[in-house]
Amino acid sequence: MVSWSEGSSSSWDNDSVTSQLPRTIPCYEWSGIAHELSSRCMRLEPCLRQVAFQSTNIGRRFLACAKEKAEEKCYYLEWIDCEWSVAMQFCIGQLWSMHDKENEDRITDNLKLGEENFKLVGEKRRMEEELRFFKLDFAKMMADKEEAISQLGSARLAISDLKEELEKKKLADGSSTNLHQVLRAKAEKKRDQLVLERDQMKEEKKKLEQFISDTMKQNHGYKDKVKKLKEICDEF
């Protein structure tokens, strides 16, 4: 049975019927329907015991309408405990301010951390995209190198076939000096042209090998960046 103190307030005497009830916190000592009390809500039904958890009313017991649905509540409110002293209300207000400030700081820190993580993820994706393009370019260069080597082999084979053909023609028509000279001049011209093409291909091959070497060195740099970025992401 609850005893009423002189400082306790009634919803009828102090016009405590409001459109909004304070937030509450579970309390095993003060809960459930107060059937044993004479207090009744505006629907003339037993009230629900509750403990406030809001602003300077935190910890104060009160009685309210027991209906669960918001549209059925009559918003009856009857305080059981007196208001806290001015000093206590000031302390409670300061504690709530500190609590709100801490929550705001935590939210701000989380937002900053989220932005930093978003930037890191964006940078990681950009580097992965660049690495993907690099791999494609490198594969293309390797294919071009193989094609250049194949062309060089074909040129050597053509020179060999030409020498063999000249030898056959020389044996077949040893008496035809003029024809031999014409064929020889033609063969030498063709040979010089092939040698020139071969030298050009050698130069192109050297440039390609140098480019591949530089690209491989740059690839190591990208791998180091990706590795460092992965370590940063793992820390979060």
From TrEMBL:
Domain GRF-type: 41-83
Domain of life: Eukaryota
Coiled coil feature spans: 145-218
GO MF term list: zinc ion binding
Keyword Zinc-finger: yes
Keyword Coiled coil attributed: yes
Alphabetic keyword roster: Coiled coil, Metal-binding, Zinc, Zinc-finger
Name the record gives this protein: GRF-type domain-containing protein
Native source species: Hordeum vulgare subsp. vulgare (Domesticated barley)
